[in-house]
Amino acid sequence: MEGKADVYPFAAIVGQDLMRKGLLLNLVNRKLGGILIRGEKGTAKSTAVRALADLMPELSVVNLPVHATEDRVVGTLDIEHAIREGEKKFEPGLLAKAHGHILYVDEINLLDDAIVDALLDAAAMGVNTVEREGVSYSHPSRFILIGTMNPEEGELRPQLLDRFALSVEVNGERDVESRMEVIRRRLAFEADPAEFRRRYESQQQELRERIERARQLIEQIKPSEELLKWTAAVGIRLKVDGHRSDIMLMKTAMAMAAFQGRTQIVADDMVEAAMMVMPHRMRKRPFEEGAYDHETIRELLGDLLSEVTHAS
Ligand SMILES: Nc1ncnc2c1ncn2[C@@H]1O[C@H](COP(=O)(O)OP(=O)(O)OP(=O)(O)O)[C@@H](O)[C@H]1O
C-alpha cells in the first residue's frame, strides 16, 4: 500500500473516457467483475488504477507482480506447525491482502498458469482455499480485479478473459492539443504534487459524490422484461459463448444508468455497456483490429437498438 498524497488525481487524466468509465463502474458496483485494460505502453493504465483507489479512502491497490510465486499469491500453510501443535498456521498471501480492495495485475497475460487458476477460483468463489497434505485453509477473498496488458506481448487465456466483466482498449491520444495537455499536467503534478492535487480536489469530490449517489440508485434499478429480452437477443446476435456476457451486460447497463444519475436504463447505457462487455467475448471478431467504437457496436446491434428505446 502506498501513501496517497503522491498519487496523480483521477480527475486529471486526459481523455481515455472508456477506461475511466469502466473503472468507475467497478466502484458503483464493486461486485461487477473487474476490468481488463488492453493497450500500448504509457497510456495512463497504471496511473488510472492508482488514481481510482485514491478516490475512495477505504480502497487500496494490492499489486500482484507478474513473477510472484504461487505461495506469495495464495499464502502458505505451515504443515509442520499443524502436526506439532495441532492447529493450523496460515501465512496470508496477496489474495488475503486484496480482500475488500483492488487487486491489480500488470501484464496479466504473462502470468503463470498456476497463479491464473488461483485467481480464477478466488474471483469466482470470493474465497481462497489453500490445501497442503490433506490440510486446508480458506479465507474470504473478494476484490476488484484490474488487469492490464499489452496484446503485442501475447493474448490472455479465454477462461480468464471471460471472467472480466469489462474490457477496454486504450491508445495514445492522437491529437496535438490532448498530448500537450498530458505533458502540461504531468509536469505540473511532478513540480508540486500537493498543489496539483488541491487544484483537482473539487472535481475529485464531485466524482466521489457521484459514485456514492450511483451506489444508492443502482439498488432501485429493476430491469424490465423487455430489457432482459433485448439483452438476450444481443448475446445471440453477437455470437458470444455462454451466458456470462448477458448477465454482465445487464449489470453493467444498470451501473451505467446509476452513474448517469438515473434509475431508468436507456439505449445509450446498453450501447456503452455492450462496448465494454461484448468485444472480448465475441467468437468472431468483426474487425482485425480491436477498434470497437460506439458506431461499430451500434451497427452490429442495428435494429435491436430501436427496440430498447421502447423497452426502457
Ligand atoms: N491520458 C493521460 N492523462 C494524464 N497523464 C497521462 C495520460 N497518458 C499518459 N499519461 C502520463 O504518461 C505516463 C505513463 O503513464 P502510465 O505509467 O500510467 O502508463 P501505463 O499505461 O501504465 O504504461 P506501461 O504499460 O508502460 O506501464 C505517466 O506519467 C502518466 O501520467
Automatic annotation (TrEMBL):
<dbReference type="InterPro" id="IPR041628">
    <property type="entry name" value="ChlI/MoxR_AAA_lid"/>
</dbReference>
<feature type="domain" description="AAA+ ATPase">
    <location>
        <begin position="31"/>
        <end position="174"/>
    </location>
</feature>
<dbReference type="InterPro" id="IPR003593">
    <property type="entry name" value="AAA+_ATPase"/>
</dbReference>
<dbReference type="Pfam" id="PF17863">
    <property type="entry name" value="AAA_lid_2"/>
</dbReference>
<dbReference type="InterPro" id="IPR027417">
    <property type="entry name" value="P-loop_NTPase"/>
</dbReference>
<dbReference type="GO" id="GO:0016887">
    <property type="term" value="F:ATP hydrolysis activity"/>
</dbReference>
<dbReference type="InterPro" id="IPR045006">
    <property type="entry name" value="CHLI-like"/>
</dbReference>
<protein>
    <submittedName>
        <fullName>Magnesium chelatase</fullName>
    </submittedName>
</protein>
<dbReference type="Pfam" id="PF07728">
    <property type="entry name" value="AAA_5"/>
</dbReference>
<dbReference type="InterPro" id="IPR011704">
    <property type="entry name" value="ATPase_dyneun-rel_AAA"/>
</dbReference>
<dbReference type="GO" id="GO:0005524">
    <property type="term" value="F:ATP binding"/>
</dbReference>
